[in-house]
Design a protein that fits this description.
The complex is a heterodimer of chains A (308) and B (544).
Chain A lengths: L1 H28 L4 H6 L6 H10 L6 H13 L12 H36 L4 H15 L2 H15 L13 H31 L2 H8 L4 H30 L2 H6 L5 H11 L2 H29 L7
Helix pairs in contact in A: 1-4, 1-13, 5-6, 5-8, 5-10, 6-8, 7-8, 8-10, 9-10, 10-13, 12-13
Chain B lengths: L38 E6 L14 H10 L4 E3 L5 E3 L2 E6 L5 E6 L12 H12 L32 E5 L2 E5 L7 H4 L21 H5 L7 E9 L3 E6 L13 E6 L5 H9 L5 E2 L16 E15 L9 H14 L2 H7 L5 E3 L25 H14 L6 E6 L5 H16 L3 E6 L2 H9 L6 E7 L10 H4 L13 H11 L3 H18 L2 E14 L21
Parallel strand pairs in B: 1-10, 14-15, 14-16
Antiparallel strand pairs in B: 2-3, 4-5, 5-7, 6-7, 8-9, 9-10, 11-17, 12-16, 12-17, 13-17
The chains are: A mainly alpha (308), B alpha+beta (544).
């Protein structure tokens, strides 16, 4: 298995190179001039322009910019933002809160989603199943910003149970509401996925065999139905952690969370190439590592899967 | 002042009666129920540049800087000017040489504010090697080029230190209201300690500036992406003495005024000086906030360059007038902006000294369907109209799409021509095409003055060859009126400005739309909120 892990980790190198090259190309295709953004409608002299462009390598050919970036990235030097902050520090400042938020959302999503989904799957077509299906349909249909603003207005402004926004000094308890909002849409998918998977496995051969052996219902469900049913759910959740981190931008904006989604958005708007590439590359790495983790979890869940 | 995506930098501040210097603003007794020690939290965004006066050109850094530094003059709330660090500012007969004497002030590190503190900082800002974004502000001074970069050598030849407390500024041409400029943040002094061994302002200074203003940074100072905290400067003895126990600029990610508004409602933030579009309709009736809505200094227009087909010469003049009259400004300010814009009646701003709405020819800014059709038909007689009339806008600023769509619809309805918005995703994409003159449509423009003078709304935008003359407008008569007004004092000056505006109203180098109102939502327990002429709160007056 360690050989497999090592092989997968080696694969991240071409992924890193490819992802950064694509990002550079895309940003180069973005029209406009970041320096004009800095200057507003005030004239900028050619000298100042050139000096700024040189500082951020904006005028080098695309391939040269990319090679410089990769060379520096090996030593964790990702350059500086326009405000003079090292990009690495920026990532260090903004990633923790996003990671915590995403993990909290994922936990809510996984725990509630799997429990409700399993119950619905076991009682397929019953009243409970129907209610859960209808609720999940509603949750999927309502956009996240509606849920966000309504939750903020209700619990933050009117009832004042929680602070309306998070801000720079974030604490775990402040993140609960944003995490619930972030979890809501995914959570509905998790329910549906678990439900279908459980319902399908209930009729599988190995489950029938287990029942025939006279195992108790609880053991059958836990060891034979659920464990097997979780394979697609774990895939979904694992990939989702990446999506939750990258997709947290709306939630981050509504609740003023100084996380990575917002930072990336601002950098894109200003055309800060090095910042955008560094942040998105981190995201890509999170995706890659999560999918490795998911693959390893398969082996734990389904004994038929082996890595050599 | 730069015209940006949606925020504009605050330059200047001050109040009506200059004698009204809020005596010593005793904060010790809280008998009146107000607590002078209260720290006020105000809306902010993470500064995009180092906190150096000549490097900061956007609100995120500008608002904190204006509180950390004091310039030669300060602005009263109504835009009038009062000496601050300057003891006296004297011009020669033709207003080309200004001699400035300084009071005895200190920076918060204990060093003296000297003539060199100013001159070195300005030399630094004007030198293109230092990549300072505010170089533009030095262009009136002898020894710089059109956009304020040093020519011939590393220092600006028009700046001369006479002795420790005196220096002399030589201008390129006479400018009677030059002292009005000097309260802007680009002209703040910088202490000796700021410069490193290589003569450059250090990175550390940019993160933790030492100033001479009403406030100084607290121990924690600027925490990136979180806040800037400041406390009153005990040695400050100027016009804006702090009446509160300090300020915290709380940053909102992505400039998210929406979440800031909720914070004001729930009492987590005291001052939001920019009401988000989502709350514009309701904020004045919201009993969880105190609402402020006043005419402001921010001028909006759109520009149709001369070089576009059908827009040059007599034909172009008629078409511009027709378009201007085809627009129903009141309808847009009312329906789209819910009364937070005021329809324009000139090219400047109603908050300024000498402003008047009685300018001959400003009826061209009123909706007049008949006249618009008639003028358009006259232009068609010269050369028949072809093609489509488009107005370009940047889609990353809230509300831009809505107003441009409204304008083009009105134009289609009145003139019966094809008209539509042209979208640019970001501000810099639009500005790039405007700057390199490749844009083939009309485009949205705007202006916020750097200092409280009507001339600042005219010269830099419409004078021949001026830095922000995006439409390449040129009119000799207008140029000479502006030059003359610059060298004249008193009411006579306002008459010259009115004459100059009459020319603009006839030729419409830009089509005025409206003045943006200053809007704010403030927590219910806050006292002393006032807008200065720059649409910014008078931070030092805020109390609880």
């Amino acid at each position: 298995m360690w050989w497999y892990v090592g092989k997968r980790l080696l694969q991240t190198i071409p992924v890193f190179l490819g992802a950064t090259l694509i990002l550079f190309s895309l940003l180069k295709l973005r029209p406009g001039d970041p320096i004009l953004n800095l200057a507003g409608n005030k004239p900028v002299s050619q000298e100042v322009r050139d000096a700024l462009a040189a500082q951020y390598n904006l005028d080098d050919p695309l391939f040269v910019q990319w090679v410089l970036f990769v060379k520096n990235a090996i030593t964790f030097n990702f350059g500086e933002t326009f405000s003079g902050q090292p990009v690495f520090d920026l990532i260090k400042d903004t990633f923790p809160v996003t990671v915590v938020l995403a993990v909290m959302a994922l936990a809510i999503d996984a725990i509630l989603g799997i429990i409700l989904g399993t119950l619905a799957g076991l009682r397929r077509n019953g009243a409970f199943d129907t209610v859960v299906l209808v609720i999940s349909l509603i949750l999927i249909s309502v956009p996240i910003f509606v849920v966000g603003f309504v939750a903020q207005l209700t619990f933050g402004v009117k009832l004042q149970w929680v602070p309306a926004t998070v801000g720079g000094d974030w604490t775990l308890s402040e993140l609960v509401l944003p995490a619930i909002v972030l979890a809501v849409a995914n959570f509905a998918y998790t329910i549906r996925l678990t439900r279908t998977s459980v319902a399908e496995n209930l009729t599988a051969d190995h489950v029938r065999t287990a029942r025939a052996k006279g195992l108790s219902n609880r053991l059958v469900v836990r060891n034979h139905v659920l464990r097997n049913s979780l394979v697609p759910v774990v895939t979904y959740l694992g990939i989702n952690l990446g999506a939750l981190m990258a997709g947290a931008i709306i939630t981050e904006t509504i609740f003023n969370i100084p996380g990575v989604g917002n930072t990336a958005f601002l950098a894109i708007q200003r055309g800060e190439t090095s910042t955008v590439v560094a942040i998105v590359t981190f995201m890509v790495m999170v995706y890659v590592l999560m999918s490795l983790l998911v693959d390893l979890l398969y082996a734990v869940l389904d004994p038929r899967i082996r890595y050599v | 002042m730069r015209f940006s995506r949606r925020t504009r930098m605050a330059g200047i501040a001050l109040v009506a009666a200059s004698s009204l210097v809020l005596a010593a603003c005793g904060s010790d007794d809280d008998g009146g129920g107000s607590d002078g020690d209260a720290v006020i939290s105000v809306y902010g965004t993470n500064p995009q540049n180092p906190l150096i006066p000549t490097a900061t050109n956007e609100v995120g850094g500008g608002d904190p800087l204006n509180n950390l530094f004091a310039g030669l003059v300060s602005y009263n709330t109504d835009g009038s000017v009062e000496n601050e660090v300057a003891e006296s500012i004297e011009g020669n007969d033709d207003s080309t040489v200004w001699t400035i004497k300084l009071k005895d002030w200190k920076f918060t590190d204990g060093s003296d504010v000297t003539a060199e503190s100013f001159v070195n900082a300005w030399n630094y800002g004007a030198n293109p090697d230092n990549k300072q974004l505010n170089n533009y502000f030095f262009y009136p001074i002898e020894g710089t080029d059109d956009i304020g970069n040093t020519t011939g050598g590393d220092t600006v030849s028009g700046l001369k230190v006479i002795d420790e407390k005196t220096f002399e500024i030589t201008l390129k041409k006479s400018e009677s209201d030059f002292p009005l400029r000097l309260g802007y943040s680009a002209y703040f002094p910088v202490p000796e300690a700021a410069y490193g061994d290589d003569g450059k302002i250090t990175k550390e200074y940019g993160e933790r500036p030492i100033g001479n203003g009403a406030y100084m940074l607290t121990e924690s100072g600027w925490e990136r992406n979180k806040q800037i905290a400041m406390e009153p400067n005990p040695d400050y003895d100027g016009n804006h003495k702090a009446q509160n126990g300090g300020l915290v600029f709380k940053f909102y990610a992505g400039g998210g005024a929406d979440s800031a508004y909720t914070d004001v409602q729930s009492g987590n933030l005291d001052v939001l000086d920019q009401v988000p579009p989502s709350a514009l309709e309701t904020f004045e009736g919201d009993n969880q906030v105190q609402a402020f809505n006043e005419p402001g200094s921010n001028f909006a227009s759109f520009t149709i360059p001369e070089r576009l087909e059908h827009f040059s010469g007599e034909e172009g003049k008629l078409r511009r007038q027709a378009l201007s009259m085809a627009i129903n400004r009141d309808e847009v300010t009312d329906k789209i902006y819910n009364g937070t814009r005021t329809s324009a009646s000139d090219f400047t701003s109603p908050v300024l000294d000498g402003w008047t709405d009685e300018i001959e020819g400003n009826d061209v800014l009123e909706f007049n369907e008949e006249e618009a059709k008639k003028l358009w038909a006259e232009a068609d007689a010269i050369a028949p109209w072809t093609g489509e009339f488009q107005i370009a806008f940047n889609n990353d600023g809230a509300g831009n799409r809505e107003f441009v769509e409204a304008l083009t619809n009105q134009i289609t309805n009145v003139l019966g021509i094809e008209s539509s918005p042209k979208v640019y995703p970001t501000f810099d994409e639009l500005r790039k095409e405007v700057t390199d003159r490749s844009i083939q449509t009309a485009f949205r423009t705007g202006w916020q003055a750097d200092y409280p003078s009507m001339l600042n709304y005219l010269g830099p935008i419409y004078a021949t060859g001026a830095g922000s003359n995006d439409g390449d407008y040129s009119n000799k008569e207008f140029d000479s009126l502006v030059t003359e007004a610059s060298a004249t004092q008193g009411d006579e000056r306002y008459e010259l400005i009115t004459d100059a505006q009459e020319i603009l109203l006839e030729e419409l180098p830009a089509i005025p739309l409206w003045y943006a109102n200053a809007t704010a939502a403030v927590s219910t327990d806050l006292k002393g909120f006032e807008f200065n002429w720059q649409q910014k709160p008078e931070y030092y007056k805020l109390t609880k």
